[in-house]
Amino acid sequence: MARRAYYADKTWPIELRRNYRSPLSALARIPFEEGPSYLFKGGSPIIARDFLFFSFYFSTYAWLKNKLFFFWVYNDFSYDYMKFLMMGFSWFAACMVSYPAFFA
Q1: Angstrom distances, CA of residue 37 to CA of 30, 51, 56, 65
Q2: Domain ranges of the chain
Q3: Does pTM top 0.85 for this prediction?
Q4: 9-34 residue pLDDT tens
Q5: Read out DSSP for the chain?
Q6: pLDDT tens for residues 31-45?
Q7: Of the N and C termini of the chain, which has fewer Cβ atoms inside 10 Å?
Q8: What is the pLDDT, as a whole number, of residue 85?
């Protein structure tokens, strides 16, 4: 958000500019001038998307690990190979679930 504020500051008329020198100076000045909540402005869709993605990813992986344990315990499949497959499927499923929230 500080980077956005820095670049937006360059496009405003001179009398409305805050005269940020860099995104880092904007990051240092915004909490005192605008309030700390300004840094999170517009971040709710991103937070919701990431929460949805990671909660679905971790829960799907845990569910698959509990349901498919017999592949590496009783059969001769490598645990690393099965973990790769479970993580890949969990990642794909979480991407499909959280994809609509990416455009919210």
Answers
A1: 9, 19, 28, 40
A2: 2-40, 44-102
A3: no
A4: 889 888 888 888 899 989 899 998 88
A5: -HHHHHHHHHHS-GGG----SSHHHHHHHHHHHT-GGGGGTT-HHHHHHHHHHHHHHHHHHHHHHHHSTHHHHTS---HHHHHHHHHHHHHHHHHHHHHHHHT-
A6: 988 888 888 888 888
A7: C
A8: 95
